[in-house]
Amino acid sequence: HDRTMQDIVYKLVPGLQEAEMKKQREFYHKLGMEVPGDIKGETCSTKQHLDSHRNGETKADENLNKETSEEKQEEDNDYHRSDEQVSICLECNSSKLRGLKRKWIRCSAQATVLHLKKFIAKKLNLSSFNELDILCNEEILGKDHTLKFVVVTRWRFKKAPLLLHYRPKMDLL
């Protein structure tokens, strides 16, 4: 998923985002499961909020502004917890590096390979994250690949967790 492209499509196609959210909620309710990303006790007025903005309505009510700023603040403190999540197992592929104490992590599908490199470098006290390669199925992953992209292209039809290996960077020339 390309987040920017998805945002553009949602803006170009009226009602698509609301329809997708509604279908997703119905699906999870049918299964009797909690909708991923929902915060317990949250009352969702997203549709009303989006409709009022789309129609050009603006309300000068102070309570609405206060509520909106509180929602924005809560949204800012989410730290991508409401994003789609990916479970990962990080294995060391070299005798030159030590393994992580906790090799199982769960993070946003929007996180990139660069984020993982920085995480591993920090945990292993490496001087630079550029000293690492991260591999999936013995293929070096590009630093800008999102974890969702890696799952869709390299981990197709395999069960979670996504197994990634890390090793010191190898210069092939």
UniProtKB/TrEMBL annotation:
<dbReference type="InterPro" id="IPR051507">
    <property type="entry name" value="PcG_RING_finger"/>
</dbReference>
<feature type="region of interest" description="Disordered">
    <location>
        <begin position="39"/>
        <end position="81"/>
    </location>
</feature>
<dbReference type="InterPro" id="IPR032443">
    <property type="entry name" value="RAWUL"/>
</dbReference>
<feature type="compositionally biased region" description="Basic and acidic residues">
    <location>
        <begin position="48"/>
        <end position="71"/>
    </location>
</feature>
<dbReference type="Pfam" id="PF16207">
    <property type="entry name" value="RAWUL"/>
</dbReference>
<keyword id="KW-0539">Nucleus</keyword>
<protein>
    <submittedName>
        <fullName>PCGF3 protein</fullName>
    </submittedName>
</protein>
<dbReference type="GO" id="GO:0005634">
    <property type="term" value="C:nucleus"/>
</dbReference>
<feature type="domain" description="RAWUL">
    <location>
        <begin position="103"/>
        <end position="167"/>
    </location>
</feature>
